[in-house]
Amino acid sequence: MIENLFLDGAMLVLTLILMRKRIRIRRVLIAAALGAVTSTLMLVLGLHFGLIYILILLGMGSVMMGIAMENKNKNDIFLGIVYYFTLVFVFSKLLKGGEWITKNRLNGIVVAICVIGVMSIALLYVLYQNRKNRQNT
Question: Less crowded by CB within 10 Å, the N or C end of the chain?
């Protein structure tokens, strides 16, 4: 559950950065905790991939976006859900790829976190350059 809390929090922060929304740590932590509890309950209840599973994920994604964002509308929440689940998908594939390359779960997690870190730094750099260019114009 702790791992899921941190991963949900990281994905929410990256989503908010992509959307150029203000990041409120308290809101992100509440949304990430809700996501972690929901994921744990789905695991404990033994829900398998299917229609109900997908509906719960999409519903929880919209609730998490609604909590994490300030000044939101339906379009922002929808775009946030798309960004969030895209980031989750990419991260899960990076994690699986890291595990496959290293043949070790722990090393795979380290590889995936390093790649996410580099991607995050690159994203922040691009956003910084955009802001700097707007100020110069």
Answer: C
